[in-house]
């Protein structure tokens, strides 16, 4: 532990500091606005300090590494969390539960994800994962009086604990074989053996269970629809983005540092998972009438798409994953942001019926939602298209024809249900439907502004992806020197 | 640069129309009309400023290229040649008419409607202009979404189903094309070391023989679905019959043409060997389409559905011509694209006029309208005659040239295709007879064409007559482009044995083709 | 001295463990279990692992066993309920089979196991001491240590937040 370590861990320290500050403020006086403000400022400062670290590659042995990939993921997570916070204000303002602890838990969950993406050691990995999970247990069940929130919280709690146990067991097995818990040293060990020992493979397999659960990929996806449905909309956005993105960042770091791409049987496992996720996600989404469940299934499918690029296992693949993560984060935030905007005190606006004729009632909201759905479907002019293009490119480049064809097939299936929602929004309501009362017709400035920014980002990246590609390539330069 | 402005103008106009539509419906209409008119005038001035007589080193009148995503070798690359120019003129001409035709028909959400119209036009212009495959796919998809909305929001009763079907068919086939584009990109990249999506660079890429046909198949899927060729046509009757009039006009007149254009521009020059291997099957598909479309058209009772099936039939000629690989046929295809756009667009407009008066598309409820609305009768019969290929009207030239060209490639199939012309006569006359002749079934008095409607119909008549009587400017304009697309087939490197022609026992096709392309030039002048 | 202590502790452990299984009163079982943990901790001390011994007593004998007792008292289990429950033959057979299988596996695994040999040259008698552990925790493993504190903070905030009664709450 050196003093300069603190400098490189500054974004994380700021988050911890903000959490502490929030606690103190709550102890003195509960004020939603103040807590909200502190949270926003903390995120901004954290992002600012992160910018200072750009281009560095710094080791904090044996736990952390601050390289391009870590900085990219940190930035992504912090900004995503910032947007989640912005969307939360209006959402929680209309609810009676105590709102202040929410921000505290949100900051700490973000911290957990941040630890995850810069860790290169099982110990740090596990602590980060647990901080994220434990914070999510309470975030999911935050609106306790809601019908489904208990169910969702308990479900997530049990399954996450179970998957953590699997992960721990897997790590123990890996440790038993290799005698080390740090990724690069595991890589060194793997270099020394020609064949993957059976016990090590078992260990990796058990770890995949834990990782797969967090990513919500088939067959570890069962929790996703219920949790998405039961959790408050901003928390759902957080689960869909930060939680999954953090795990994806870790997975890629582990595979590249330990150089696990070499093993055909590991790749085979992931190929099967990817195809199953794409198919199951899209097919199950087809008949959903509940928007949050629909988005849950769609996110299962999207993680399957990301795995296609992950499986490419080369530089282009990692670039594609990074790009897709950005696009997918923007899109998910936008989509759940709309759900949050339209929700009222009683329940979230998660039925398809809530969106019927939305375009004629609230054109701006509907336009943003349409853009987000089109992006999920991968239609040009949106970031989702460029992301999907990138993934296809990495798949074609490594000639994984089966995966690529499955991706195309699934895009078409996916199109069907995205269009269904869009069609509902543009449908002309026959009778003048009784409008559900929305508590804050004058959109709260934060939510409205956040949605506008997300929409613009979506289009900007969709039309002019050059600068983002540039950024990702620049950051990856310090990460993937081996490729 | 002016090419980029054409597209930007339409897009900006669309947004303006949407915004204006929130205040006053007529603002939106006028903005849309003026934008399209401006684009039309720009393309006319392009025509006038680039006379065909001047001999130039290249047939590309202008090119505009700026890097877009340089890391991937994607550039914003537009280029104009004779073929593109003709297609652009057609686009804006039909665009103008479709805006005029919706003037009274569309009463709800006028601003958004015109936004969609202008963005479809922008997407289509982009498809016709772009010379970068990434950008091409981009525009290819951009034109779908507004079209989806046009059908889905302002269509007839069963509009959602039709819109779904249209979108999913075209999207699925488009994604396969994207895969092929990527395959082409990486093969070219690994061959030459420069990774680029630029059309001009990708021309002449050599493939391993096992991969070429697969790559072509991806492109073909997109274009054949769009065209549409028979096994993939089922979206078209639904989309056409459910769309509002303007939507039908743009669908039939322009969207189908992007498929034909794609075949000419991309499939033929990029994959010469694979295309030749596929040619007999493609021609067979074309003939099947011609006959199948005609037979189904004859048995329809829904007027718009009937016209839709005539499109299937007419588009059969396009694929027949494209895979004949000679200049006669290609000129015929270009003519067919233009004249079919005009004549079918006109028929849809007529159907729209009738629908406005009768509120039905069922021809069993029509009949004997000639005395009541003679002006419309005259116009409709001109367009029906055009559709059946009466000499003197544009379609005749197109089909004649196509058949002459395809005869040289494949006699047997050409004979079958000619039967399609007879069938066309049958269904075209059936329209006239059922709607305008016979016992009068009108329940209430019909009003004849108004001044606005006349001003829509007249330019169409003028255009179709001009194309029929003096097609030379169009043929001249298209010639350099057509030659260029055939470039790969004139080289002596072509393998002498072309399985297609051999199996179907015609003359050795190569010699014939080379002779005829020379002869063709003389014959056309 | 150490040897006789070891045998005494071993005897005590086994006796207490059997007592857990065989005593009819669940409260006695729990008390026997606590005794088992204590004697296990004695073993740890003999192995020069004071920290593990202390943690074992605090966590298992202290926290977890108290929870056990509470649960048993809440459920009001006693000798009557124990006897009232008829254990079917099937349960017994299944238990015997699974226990037997476990035994077989254990024998199979331990048959070939090599016990690491004791190397008096490099033996560091200080390795399990609290002082060393603390030293490591505050130097090399400072960051994970701090992260663990954050983890507890999260758990605490979450538990309090979820467990607290709202003024207008109707449940429970």
Automatic annotation (TrEMBL), chain A:
Lineage, uppermost ranks: Bacteria, Pseudomonadati, Bacteroidota, Cytophagia, Cytophagales
Name of the protein this chain belongs to: NADH-quinone oxidoreductase subunit N
Coiled coil: none
HAMAP family: NDH1_NuoN_1
The organism of origin for this protein: Adhaeribacter rhizoryzae
EC numbers for this chain: 7.1.1.-
Gene that this polypeptide is encoded by: nuoN
Every NADH:quinone oxidoreductase/Mrp antiporter transmembrane domain range: 119-414
Role description: NDH-1 shuttles electrons from NADH, via FMN and iron-sulfur (Fe-S) centers, to quinones in the respiratory chain. The immediate electron acceptor for the enzyme in this species is believed to be a menaquinone. Couples the redox reaction to proton translocation (for every two electrons transferred, four hydrogen ions are translocated across the cytoplasmic membrane), and thus conserves the redox energy in a proton gradient.
Compartments, as annotated in UniProt: Cell membrane; Endomembrane system; Membrane
From TrEMBL, chain B:
An example molecular function term from Gene Ontology annotations: ubiquinone binding
The NADH:quinone oxidoreductase/Mrp antiporter transmembrane domain, residue ranges: 131-418
Gene Ontology BP terms: ATP synthesis coupled electron transport; electron transport coupled proton transport
Entry's localization field: Endomembrane system; Membrane
Ranges annotated as spanning the membrane: 27-48, 85-103, 110-128, 134-154, 166-187, 207-225, 246-268, 280-299, 306-325, 337-355, 376-397, 409-429
Source organism superkingdom: Bacteria
Name by which UniProt lists this protein: NADH-quinone oxidoreductase subunit M
Name of the coding gene: nuoM
Automatic annotation (TrEMBL), chain C:
Gene3D superfamilies assigned: NADH-ubiquinone/plastoquinone oxidoreductase chain 6, subunit NuoJ
Keywords assigned: Cell membrane, Membrane, NAD, Quinone, Transmembrane, Transmembrane helix
Membrane topology qualifier: Multi-pass membrane protein
InterPro entries reported for this sequence: NADH_UbQ/plastoQ_OxRdtase_su6, Nuo/plastoQ_OxRdtase_6_NuoJ
GO MF annotation: an example: NADH dehydrogenase (ubiquinone) activity
Residue spans crossing the bilayer: 6-23, 30-51, 57-77, 89-110, 141-162
Catalytic activity of the protein: a quinone + NADH + 5 H(+)(in) = a quinol + NAD(+) + 4 H(+)(out)
Subcellular localization: Cell membrane
Similarity remark: Belongs to the complex I subunit 6 family.
Protein task: NDH-1 shuttles electrons from NADH, via FMN and iron-sulfur (Fe-S) centers, to quinones in the respiratory chain. Couples the redox reaction to proton translocation (for every two electrons transferred, four hydrogen ions are translocated across the cytoplasmic membrane), and thus conserves the redox energy in a proton gradient.
Protein name: NADH-quinone oxidoreductase subunit J
Species this protein is from: Adhaeribacter aerolatus
């Amino acid at each position: 532990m050196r003093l300069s370590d603190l400098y490189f861990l500054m974004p994380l320290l700021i988050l911890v500091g903000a959490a502490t500050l929030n606690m103190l403020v709550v102890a003195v006086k509960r004020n939603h606005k103040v807590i909200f403000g502190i949270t926003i400022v903390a995120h901004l400062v954290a992002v600012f300090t992160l910018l200072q670290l750009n281009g560095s590659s710094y080791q904090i042995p044996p736990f952390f590494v601050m390289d391009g990939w870590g900085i990219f993921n940190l930035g992504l997570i912090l900004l995503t969390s910032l947007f989640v916070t912005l969307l939360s204000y209006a959402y929680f303002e209309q609810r009676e539960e105590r709102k202040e602890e929410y921000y505290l838990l949100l900051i700490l969950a973000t911290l957990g994800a941040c630890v995850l993406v810069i860790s290169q050691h099982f110990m740090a990995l596990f602590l980060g994962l647990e901080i994220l999970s434990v914070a999510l247990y309470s975030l999911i069940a935050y609106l306790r009086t809601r019908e489904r929130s208990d169910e969702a919280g308990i479900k997530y709690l049990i399954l996450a604990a179970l998957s953590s146990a699997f992960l721990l067991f897997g790590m123990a097995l890996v440790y038993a074989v290799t005698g080390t818990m740090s990724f690069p040293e595991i890589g060194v060990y793997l270099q020394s053996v020609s064949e993957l020992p059976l016990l090590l493979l078992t260990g990796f397999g058990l770890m995949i269970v834990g990782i797969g659960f967090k990513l919500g990929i088939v067959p570890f996806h069962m929790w996703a629809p219920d949790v998405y449905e039961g959790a408050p909309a901003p928390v759902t956005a957080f689960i869909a983005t930060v939680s999954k993105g953090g795990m994806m960042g870790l997975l890629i770091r582990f595979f590249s540092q330990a150089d696990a791409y070499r093993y055909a049987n590991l790749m085979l496992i992931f190929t099967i998972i990817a195809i199953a996720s794409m198919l199951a996600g899209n097919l199950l989404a087809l008949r959903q009438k509940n928007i949050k469940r629909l988005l849950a299934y769609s996110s299962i499918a999207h993680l399957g798409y990301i795995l296609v690029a992950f499986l490419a296992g080369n530089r282009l693949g990692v670039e594609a994953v990074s790009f897709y993560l950005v696009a997918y984060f923007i899109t998910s935030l936008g989509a759940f942001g709309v759900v949050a905007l339209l929700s009222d005190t009683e329940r979230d606006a998660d039925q398809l019926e809530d969106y019927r004729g939305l375009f004629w009632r609230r054109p701006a909201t509907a336009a943003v939602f349409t853009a987000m759905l089109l992006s999920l479907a991968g239609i040009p002019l949106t970031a989702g298209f460029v992301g999907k293009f990138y993934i296809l490119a990495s798949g074609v480049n490594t000639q994984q024809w089966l995966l690529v064809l499955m991706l195309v097939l699934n895009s078409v299936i996916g199109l069907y249900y995205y269009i269904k929602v869009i069609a509902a929004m543009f449908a002309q309501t026959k009778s003048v439907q009784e409008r559900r009362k929305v508590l804050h017709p004058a959109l709260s400035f934060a939510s409205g502004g956040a949605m506008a920014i997300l929409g613009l980002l979506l289009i900007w990246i969709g039309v002019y992806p050059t600068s983002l590609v540039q950024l990702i390539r620049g950051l990856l330069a310090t990460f993937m020197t081996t490729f | 640069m002016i090419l980029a402005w054409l597209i930007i103008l339409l897009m900006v106009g669309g947004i303006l129309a949407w915004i204006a539509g929130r205040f006053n419906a007529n603002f939106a209409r006028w903005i849309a009309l003026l934008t399209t008119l401006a684009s039309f005038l720009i393309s006319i001035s392009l025509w006038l400023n680039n006379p065909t007589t001047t001999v130039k080193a290249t047939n590309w009148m202008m090119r505009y290229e700026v890097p877009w995503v340089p890391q991937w070798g994607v550039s914003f690359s537009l280029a104009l040649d004779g073929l593109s120019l003709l297609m652009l003129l057609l686009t804006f001409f039909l665009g103008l008419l479709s805006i005029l035709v919706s003037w009274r028909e569309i009463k709800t959400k006028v601003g958004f409607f015109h936004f969609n119209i202008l963005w479809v036009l922008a997407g289509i212009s982009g498809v016709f202009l772009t010379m970068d495959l990434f950008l091409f796919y981009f525009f290819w998809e951009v034109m779908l979404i507004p079209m989806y909305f046009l059908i889905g929001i302002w269509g007839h009763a069963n509009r959602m189903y039709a819109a779904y079907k249209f979108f999913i068919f075209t999207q699925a086939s488009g994604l396969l094309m994207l895969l092929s584009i990527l395959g082409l990109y990486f093969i070219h990249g690994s061959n030459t070391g420069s990774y680029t999506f630029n059309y001009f660079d990708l021309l002449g890429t050599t493939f391993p023989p096992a991969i070429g046909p697969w790559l072509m198949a991806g492109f073909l899927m997109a274009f054949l679905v769009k065209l549409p060729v028979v096994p993939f046509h089922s979206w078209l009757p639904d989309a056409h019959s459910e769309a509002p009039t303007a939507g039908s006009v743009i669908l039939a007149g322009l969207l189908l043409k992007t498929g034909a254009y794609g075949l000419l521009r991309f499939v033929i020059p990029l994959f010469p060997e694979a295309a030749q291997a596929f040619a007999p099957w493609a021609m067979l598909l074309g003939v099947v389409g011609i006959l199948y479309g005609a037979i189904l058209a004859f048995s329809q009772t829904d007027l718009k559905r009937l016209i839709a099936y005539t499109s299937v039939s007419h588009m059969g000629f396009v694929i027949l011509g494209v895979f004949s690989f000679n200049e006669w046929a290609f000129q015929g295809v270009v003519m067919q694209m233009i004249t079919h756009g005009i004549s079918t667009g006109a028929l849809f407009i007529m159907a729209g006029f009738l629908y406005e008066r009768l509120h039905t598309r069922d021809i069993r409820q029509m009949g004997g309208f000639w005395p009541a609305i003679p002006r419309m009768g005259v116009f409709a019969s001109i367009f029906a005659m055009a559709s059946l290929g009466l000499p003197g009207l544009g379609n005749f030239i197109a089909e004649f040239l196509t058949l002459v060209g395809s005869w040289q490639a494949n006699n047997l199939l050409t004979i079958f295709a000619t039967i399609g012309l007879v069938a066309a006569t049958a269904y075209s006359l059936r329209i006239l007879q059922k709607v305008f002749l016979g016992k009068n079934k009108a329940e209430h008095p019909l009003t004849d064409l108004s001044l606005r409607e006349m001003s829509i119909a007249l330019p169409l008549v003028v255009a179709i007559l001009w194309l029929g009587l003096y097609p030379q400017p169009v043929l001249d304009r298209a010639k350099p482009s057509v030659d260029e697309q055939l470039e790969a087939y004139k080289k002596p490197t072509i393998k002498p044995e072309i399985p297609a022609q051999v199996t179907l026992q015609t003359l050795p096709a190569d010699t014939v083709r080379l002779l005829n392309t020379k002869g063709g030039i003389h014959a056309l002048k | 001295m150490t040897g006789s202590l070891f045998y005494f502790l071993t005897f005590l452990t086994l006796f207490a463990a059997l007592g857990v299984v065989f005593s009819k009163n669940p409260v006695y079982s729990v008390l026997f279990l606590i005794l088992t943990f204590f004697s296990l901790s004695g073993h740890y001390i003999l192995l020069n692992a004071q920290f593990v011994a202390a943690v074992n007593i605090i966590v298992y004998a202290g926290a977890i066993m108290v929870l056990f007792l509470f649960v048993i008292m809440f459920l009001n289990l006693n000798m009557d309920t124990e006897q009232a429950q008829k254990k079917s033959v099937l349960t017994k057979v299944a238990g015997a089979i699974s226990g037997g299988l476990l035994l077989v596996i254990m024998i199979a695994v331990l048959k070939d196991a090599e016990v690491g040999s004791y190397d008096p040259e490099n033996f560091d008698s200080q390795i399990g001491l609290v002082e060393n552990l603390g030293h490591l925790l505050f130097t090399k493993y400072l960051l994970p240590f701090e992260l663990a504190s954050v983890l507890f903070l999260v758990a605490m905030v979450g538990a309090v937040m979820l467990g607290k009664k709202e003024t207008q709450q109707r449940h429970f």
